[in-house]
Amino acid sequence: MSDLAGWRKRIDEIDQQLVKLLNERSQCAVEIGHLKKMLSQHAWQPQREAEILRNVVKANEGPLDDAAIRRLFERIIDEARSLERHSMEGGGSFRKE
Amino acid sequence: MSDLAGWRKRIDEIDQQLVKLLNERSQCAVEIGHLKKMLSQHAWQPQREAEILRNVVKANEGPLDDAAIRRLFERIIDEARSLERHSMEGGGSFRKE
To answer: Which among B19, B64, B72 has the least Cβ separation from residue A56?
Structure first.
C-alpha cells in the first residue's frame, strides 16, 4: 500500500477486532469475578498480573517495544480489574452512554 | 466454563492475539509516518484521532463501557503516535529489552 487512506482503512479494521477482543477479555474478567466471589478470593492477585505482563512481553515482536506493550497491558489489566471488582460486588450491567 | 484456570487460559489466548494486533496496528502507524514525511504532513492530526475514537465507541457492545474503551484507545493512539513520530524522524528499528 502506498496511500494514507489504505493504511487508515487497515487501522480501522484492526480497531474493530481490538474492540471485540478487549470486550471478550473483559467478559472473562467478569466471570472470574463471579467465581472469586463464590470462592471468597480477592480481586487483586499481583502474581497473576505479573504473569500476564511476562507473557505479553515474551510474545512481543515489535514494532512496539516491550515498555510500550507493558504500558498498554497495565491499562488493559486495570480496566479488567475494575469490571471484575464490580461483578464481585454484584454491580449492574453494561450501559451505553 | 466453571473454573478460574479455564477463564485465565482464555485470557492468555486473547492476550496473544492482542499483542499481534497492537503490533500490526503500530506497523501501519510506522508506514503512515513514512508517507507523511514524504508528503511533509504533521504527525498529529486531531480530526483523525477523534474519528478513531468515534469509530471504536460506536463498535462497543460492552461489557467495557464507552469511557473505558475511550481510555484504552487514547493510550493505543498515544503509543502509535510515538512510533509514527519516530519513523518520521528516521529513527532506529525495534529492539528487544
So the answer is: B19
